[in-house]
Amino acid sequence: FRSELPGVSREAGHQRVRESALSLARVYVSITVIEYVLLLFTGLIPYDALLHALGTIPTGGFSNYSESVRGLDNVRAEVVITIFMFLSGINFGWYDVLVRAGWKTFFKRLWASSEFRWYLGIALVSMFVIAGILYANGGTNGDVSMAARASGKDYSQFSTAIRDSSFLVVSMQTSTGFGTVNFDVWPQFARILLMFLAVIGACAGSTGGGIKVIRVLIVCKAAIVGVQRFIRPRAIHAVRVDGQSLEEASVASITSYFALWVMVFGAGTLLLCAYNIDLQTAATAVIATLNNIGPGLAGVGPFGNFADMPSMVKLVLAFFMILGRLEFYAAVALLMPSLWKR
Description:
Layout: H1 17-41, H2 46-56, H3 75-88, H4 93-101, H5 103-112, H6 114-136, H7 146-151, H8 158-173, H9 188-200, H10 213-231, E1 240-241, E2 244-245, H11 248-274, H12 279-290, H13 311-326, H14 328-333, H15 337-340
Antiparallel strand pairs: 1-2
């Protein structure tokens, strides 16, 4: 339970596990039903609405169309799914605050959370950066870029660029994996930025994957504190989040998690390269499986798959999917001989 709620969530620690589970179940079902109803209002048939609602809230990304959400051909449905993917990336404990304390307290406490502010900020900045890149490569005289031609989109209209960038940014950041366009033909910076978003992930306590925003935030602050201690070794420096000074043990635990993730990522990439898989495919395949996203780049891009990979590679990537879903500490602990002796 502790490994699934990293960071400094105060709400989760004030309830017993059983009460938290029941509360989260109610919230989960309620949000799913709300999205299902809204998708019906967009014009989707009940079957499509149900499947995409069930694929959005758990950030699973499953669709009954081979082209994913693009197959719906419904702009309003894309907007609804984008909103609920983003909501699914928020700590579900905050929704319990909404139920217990009302909207005013909910928004006040939510905005006081540095993790949420960074989660929102990263998403918004990434949306406009990628939209700007697509727009700049779209042209205005009919001679659109190779990227636009290959994806079947003319990004000379900023509205088209912001529509696709918003959906893909939220989809990748929350590890949902839904798609509306082949982003593997986008300009290089946009493609790599999407992979970085997938690594950072959503908020702790959400259904999203990735390292989690709070962990990345704490690691960055710990690095800054480390530099400050190097400059002024006698001064007292502490890693602070939301006005709280974190214990050294908590910071060490999070930084070791980050180091463990990097080690597994590096080892996995090298292993795939040993099977003559190109570096881009290998690295993004590991990112896609460790963070439970689905698509990567190149051979495992939105229009690619893992079918042609060697059986051993598939087994390794299947293990990575389990590892990413269970959180590293919980899964790796099971492999430690010291645990078997207890």
